[in-house]
Task: structure prediction
Amino acid sequence: MCAIAGLIGSISGQPLSPRALAAMMASICHCGPDGSDTYFSPAGGVALGHNRISIIDLSEAGAQPMVDPETGAVLVFNGKIYNFVEVRAKLEAKGHRFRSHCDTEVLLKALVAWGRDALHRLNGMFVFAFWQPGRRRLLLARDPLGMKPLYYWTAPGGGLAFASEIKALFHVP
Result:
């Protein structure tokens, strides 16, 4: 099982803290023994983290947070897209190119191509955070049955913290 976590906006009136995200990720490191990485938006206001367990694509091409090279969109994802081969074929028919063999990249390209309508095309169990820096928009979603956990906290003033396990939220200032 992988794990995701993130901080959006200011938390308790403070700018995002790399230290807070690192503590959140450390508290759920058992969920992803194959790697861990973070993304901080250059414009500020968004911090995303991912702990990885490699299953489908063991190469670094499947590492997360995954950034779309054309749009700069960023994805952290936990789960499995069962029909990713079919979704990938539809995207390839539209001209999308892939550098990995993982369902994460298929999900990223599907979200770039179809936005939130991509959710209707997915069959799987998942939770993800999809950040579009050009639109300053975050899509935080999970599968319809809620198979993968997602816990979140909204801070006074509009900030948001989320994670795959509730104990990660205890590290939010």
Observations:
- The helical segments are 18-27, 84-93, 103-114.
- The mean pLDDT is 87.
- The two ends are 26 Å apart (CA to CA).
- Residues 3-171 form a domain with the Glutamine Phosphoribosylpyrophosphate, subunit 1, domain 1 fold (CATH 3.60.20.10).
